[in-house]
Amino acid sequence: MSPDLDWIRARLRRYERIPGHLPQFGDDIDNFDTELLGALTPAAVLVPVIARREPTLLFTKRNANMRRHAGQVAFPGGRLDPGEDAVRAALREAEEETALPPVHVEVVAPIDDYATGTGFRVTPVVGIIPPDLALTPHEAEVESLFEVPLDYVLDASKHERRTGEWKGRERTFYVIPWRDGDIWGATAGMVVNLARILTQ
What cofactor does this one take (predicted)? Predict the structure, then answer.
């Protein structure tokens, strides 16, 4: 049975986010050099929960010609501009990448920051949006948009642990298989963190 939106709101608003805390699981934190944490670039993503009868999560598939993370499945987001906090950055980036008007986003709560091996400290901001909005991917950055049932991505049995070599080091990362493109790396790590917060 799909999670109820009121249950999601209650769980996330009750969750005590610890400033500076990084989840000790996922793809990048396992092998991360903690001495570099202070040098990470602040960034934020919107984790858009679509308020369908059975809620879904909205994902983007990045343009294959992007310099970073080309072709990967991701949440809309990017680095913080000067003077921005994570919520404002997540809403701005979501509007730029998907034409999602911030007025349609019910911001629920940010969850734990996530350190990536590419040098970012990402704050995921969970927001609820209405179904069937006229969203349009920004062609230069986003190839397509797609939805995945929330109960599917929260199911721990779908959180596969895999290993691979990156920059000469063996790394462990999560993969959540899906027909429109596997969710993996930092995005999957953030989903796993969300699942643990909601179900712990």
Answer: Mn(2+); Mg(2+)
Place of tokens 């805390």: 21
How many beta carbons lie within 10 A of that of residue 10, not counting itself? 12
Residues 145, 174, 184, CA angle at the centre, nearest 5°?
25
Instruction: Evaluate whether 115 touches 81 at the Cβ level (below 8 Å).
Output: no
pLDDT digits (tens, 9 = 90+) for 69-107: 555 899 999 999 999 999 999 999 999 999 999 999 999
pTM value surpassing 0.70: yes
Tokens at 151, concatenated: 């109960």
Q: Where are the alpha helices (DSSP H) in 51-158?
A: 86-98, 150-154
Collapsing DSSP to helix, strand or coil, 108 comes out as strand
Nearest to 104 by CA among 78, 76, 137, 135: 135
Beta strand extents in the chain (DSSP E only): 41-50, 56-62, 73-74, 77-79, 106-110, 114-115, 120-129, 142-149, 160-166, 169-176, 183-184
CA distance 112 to 21: 6
How far is Cα 69 from Cα 164, in angstroms, rounded to an integer? 16
CATH tag for 5-199 (out of 3.40.50.720, 3.20.20.70, 3.90.79.10, 3.40.50.2300): 3.90.79.10
